[in-house]
UniProtKB/TrEMBL annotation:
Family: Belongs to the glutamate 5-kinase family.
Encoding gene, per UniProt annotation: proB
Species of provenance: Phocaeicola faecium
HAMAP family the UniProt entry points to: ProB
Matches recorded under InterPro entries: AceGlu_kinase-like_sf, Asp/Glu/Uridylate_kinase, G5K_ProB, Glu/AcGlu_kinase, Glu_5kinase, Glu_5kinase/COase_Synthase, Glutamate_5-kinase_CS, PUA
A Pfam family that the UniProt record links to this protein: AA_kinase
Aspartate/glutamate/uridylate kinase domain residues: 8-234
Predominant location: cytoplasm
EC number(s) given by UniProt: 2.7.2.11
Superkingdom of the source species: Bacteria
Lineage: Bacteria, Pseudomonadati, Bacteroidota, Bacteroidia, Bacteroidales
PUA domain boundaries: 280-349
Keyword line: Amino-acid biosynthesis, ATP-binding, Cytoplasm, Kinase, Nucleotide-binding, Proline biosynthesis, Transferase
Name by which UniProt lists this protein: Glutamate 5-kinase
Length: 360
């Protein structure tokens, strides 16, 4: 088959998998499994990121007392994830395909070592023909440790696994150039690099989702800037996945045009690591201008005015411009005590080497 991509991450949103009453839509799930199986048999490497744990657990248990929102999420996801993966396992087995479960947390992306462990796990699964089915470990990720939603998780997975494309399946055909329910609006088919879509996106979410269209757009842009095509399409449409890969021109969806330059694997990790930053490097005016220029440059101690926080060598730090605004992230080459000693000095080694610097 002439598929346009051979390595893809597919994110299936909560709303695709749940019926209006909140129960698991097994018919839809089964249709999507058939499509993924078809691609897999056609030689496409697929990593699935599936939501639906909380939604599918909700209908299974009746809590004995009033639970707060964290407890509810923990209880429903513990039950619901087991139900979800069990369904997937059985449905894929009918196609002779083995699947495996990967539950992760935002923290597991925080250090390079954990990150590589996860990547290795999924690589070995793929090498052995096993489809990884990834979800956040909702039982233990609470509030500030959580991914914004599974769109963020799927972006990190697509980036980590060096995928050619990330397909985000929701309950809508793509991003509309206005309110989707209003007459006269239509799906934006292509989003060029640097295009601002904020005017179009309403903050409301669909029934069971967590992040909404705004997070999808932010993540999509970031992942596309790393050279990965991002597609937002309707997971409720029949045969959507093969159609997107075989007949993209005739299939409604929004496509984020990827950057043409290659981004190294370590830079991709750094790009998604802002949340783990342990400190800040504040650049002076001249360094800010140089860093913003066209040339690839490292951050030298002479260009740093101030250092905030305590960090170890190889930790992630935020890069701030002369006005104190964040402009990127990088991996620091020395600990904070040593970095402070070098501040403002000439002839020192870079604090952040260009290879480990990601600018927004
Ligand atoms: N401009 C827009 N185009 C498309 N959808 C939008 C737009 N603005 C807001 N939305 C809403 O975003 C919803 C999809 O996001 P979300 O609820 O997070 O779904 P999921 O569970 O699939 O991640 C749509 O159902 C729609 O109501
Ligand atoms: N991990 C959660 C997913 C929650 C979530 O963010 O879902 P979505 O709105 O589809 O991105 C679950 O399985 O219920």
């Amino acid at each position: 088959m002439d598929y346009q991509f051979h390595k893809i991450a597919v994110k299936i949103g909560s709303n695709v998998l749940t019926r209006r009453d909140g129960t698991l839509d097994v018919t839809r799930m089964s249709a999507l499994v058939d499509q993924v199986a078809e691609l897999h048999k056609g030689g496409v490497e697929v990593v699935l990121v599936s939501s639906g744990a909380v939604a599918s657990g909700r209908s299974e248990v009746k809590p004995q007392r009033r639970l707060d929102s964290v407890e509810q999420r923990q209880l429903f996801s513990a039950v619901g994830q087991a139900k979800l993966i069990n369904r997937y396992y059985e449905l894929f087995r009918e196609h002779g395909i083995t699947v495996g479960q990967v539950l992760t947390t935002k923290e597991s992306f925080g250090t390079r070592r954990h990150y590589l462990n996860q990547r290795n796990c999924m690589r070995v699964m793929l090498e052995n023909g096993v489809i990884p089915i990834v979800n956040e470990n909702d039982t233990i990720s609470v509030t500030e440790l959580m991914f914004t939603d599974n769109d963020e998780l799927s972006g990190m997975i697509a980036s980590m696994m060096d995928m050619q494309a990330l397909i985000i399946l929701s309950n809508i055909d793509g991003i509309y150039n206005g309110s989707p329910s209003e007459p006269g609006t239509s799906v934006i088919r292509e989003v060029e690099q640097g295009k601002d879509l904020s005017d179009y996106i309403r903050t409301e979410k669909s029934g069971f989702g967590r992040g909404g269209m705004l997070t999808k757009t932010t993540i999509a842009r970031k992942v596309a800037d790393e050279g990965i095509t991002v597609i937002i399409a309707n997971g409720k449409r029949d045969n959507i996945l093969p159609d997107l890969l075989l007949r993209p021109d005739e299939t409604v969806h929004t496509r984020f045009i990827p950057a043409s330059e290659e981004v190294s694997s370590v830079k991709k990790w750094i790009a998604h690591s802002e949340g783990f930053a342990k400190g800040e490097l504040h650049l002076n005016q001249h360094a800010t201008e140089v860093i913003r220029g066209d040339k690839a440059v490292s951050i030298l101690p002479i260009g740093v005015e101030r250092i905030v926080g305590d960090f170890e060598k190889d930790d992630i730090v935020k890069i701030m411009d002369a006005e104190g605004q964040p402009i990127g992230v990088g991996r620091i080459a020395t600990d904070s005590a040593e970095a402070r000693k070098q501040l403002g000095k000439h002839g020192q080694r870079p604090l952040v080497h260009y290879d480990y610097l990601y600018l927004d």
